[in-house]
């Protein structure tokens, strides 16, 4: 009565596409900030905010993934408990 493990894995092509898209976006944003007609401190501020945005995005993605995995583990534990109760239940036994 257990359900098969259906964990979707990303293909290598999707991983490569995501990495390339991230690299292009990061380099384009950095180049745009560097070539803006601004003072050095203004460029520095924009570069620091861009780096903070990237690091907080990675942190958010990790937290969302961890919560999803924890919920999946709890769901599997609940399923195992239910299967154990159903296996141990004898409807013809006198109470």
From TrEMBL:
Coiled coil: none annotated. It comes from the Bacteria. GO terms for cellular component: plasma membrane. Residues 14-66 form the YiaAB two helix domain. InterPro entries: YiaA-like (IPR038972), YiaAB (IPR008024). One of its GO terms (biological process) is DNA damage response. The keyword Electron transport does not apply. Keywords: Membrane, Transmembrane, Transmembrane helix. Pfam families: YiaAB. The chain crosses the membrane at residues 12-38, 44-64. This is YiaAB two helix domain-containing protein.
